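User: Sequence recovery, please. Input:
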């Protein structure tokens, strides 16, 4: 008997997982048809799914609590269960035959840290459903389904980056994604480099509206310029009204920074990579206006460390985490940055990488 009072007939459990990600560079470009360079984290969200004989979905999460619903009666609540409901509503709408199930979730991806915890959950769930119900979905189709659930049910008009790296990414390897055609290419970090990721202790909420507002501003800019997306613009035209001129300048310059970063990684030029990270943060702060005082302080402290090559906010912004580039094997930089930030901000940071 479960919390809904239904008797569940169970079969064998299906397990699946998917990683969170840190985006090295390429922020707010994915929904503009641009380039991104995310890295799959060692931190993963794992699910265990047991099929039921009825239509009830019963969900238990170590981190988030207990919830549930009935298939066919999915309704947005504004809470975390919407990520689950969105996936089952979408699959049923596409004609896939699902039954009820018991779902256990364990997430090691920090929630609200800008490290794509929701995409990791959706991809892990879709992988488990694919296995449990023999759904004919490839890995790219899983990512696209997770994105559609975000758009159509959760109400976050996310780009494809998070879902695609959760589905295709290799831990620790930057993945160059051209979001215009979903081409992907691994671009390994040089042997002498590693990433530092620090959560600021302040959280972001994509669905709060700021993310969707930025996307709408970009779509309005593309409409004014007569192009399908800002990916088609390589030089910023004059005459755009504020703030659309600044939004477009960020997207155009950020796409160029991604390609410059890839070129620098391929020849092991960490100084060039670091310069792109620094420039990306300045653009996100000043032109795209998605930073925050906490993130600016954390980046400033990181950039002041002599061994750090560059640093920037990572993820949607408005809180969350930063990413920095450091020499491989330097275990002290992250702790020093976090300690200095805690002393100056009063927030409680956490070091995500090195893990």
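Assistant: Recovered sequence (355 residues):
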């Amino acid at each position: 008997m479960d919390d809904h009072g239904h008797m569940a007939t169970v079969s064998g459990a299906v397990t699946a997982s998917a990683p969170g990600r840190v985006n090295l560079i390429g922020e707010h470009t994915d929904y503009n048809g641009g380039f991104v360079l995310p890295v799959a984290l060692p931190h993963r969200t794992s699910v265990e799914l047991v099929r039921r004989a009825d239509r009830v979905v019963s969900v238990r999460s170590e981190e988030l609590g207990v919830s549930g619903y009935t298939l066919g009666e999915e309704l947005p609540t504004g809470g975390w269960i919407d990520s689950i409901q969105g996936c089952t509503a979408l699959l049923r709408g596409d004609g896939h035959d699902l039954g009820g199930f018991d779902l256990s979730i364990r997430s090691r991806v920090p929630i609200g840290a800008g490290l794509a915890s929701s995409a990791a959950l959706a991809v892990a769930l879709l992988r488990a459903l694919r296995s449990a119900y023999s759904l004919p979905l490839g890995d790219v189709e899983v990512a696209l389904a997770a994105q559609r659930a975000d758009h159509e049910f959760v109400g976050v008009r996310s780009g494809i980056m998070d879902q695609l790296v959760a589905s295709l990414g290799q831990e620790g390897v930057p993945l160059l994604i051209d979001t215009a055609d979903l081409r992907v290419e691994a671009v390994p970090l040089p042997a002498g480099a590693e990433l530092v990721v620090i959560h600021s202790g302040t959280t972001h909420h994509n669905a709060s509206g700021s993310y969707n507002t930025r996307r709408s501003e970009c779509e309005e800019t593309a409409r004014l310029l007569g192009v399908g997306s800002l990916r088609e613009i390589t030089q910023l035209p004059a005459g755009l009204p504020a703030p659309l001129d600044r939004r477009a300048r960020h997207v155009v310059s950020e796409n160029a920074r991604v390609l410059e970063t890839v070129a620098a990684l391929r020849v092991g030029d960490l100084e060039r990579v670091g310069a792109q990270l620094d420039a990306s943060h300045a653009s996100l702060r000043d032109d795209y206006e998605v930073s925050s005082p906490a993130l600016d302080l954390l980046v400033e402290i990181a950039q002041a460390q002599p061994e750090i090559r560059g640093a920037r906010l990572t993820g949607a912004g408005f809180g969350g985490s930063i990413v920095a580039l450091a020499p491989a094997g330097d275990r002290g930089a992250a702790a020093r940055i976090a300690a200095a930030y805690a002393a100056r901000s009063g927030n409680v940071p956490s070091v995500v990488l090195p893990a």
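The domain at 14-185 is CATH 3.30.230.10 (Ribosomal Protein S5; domain 2).
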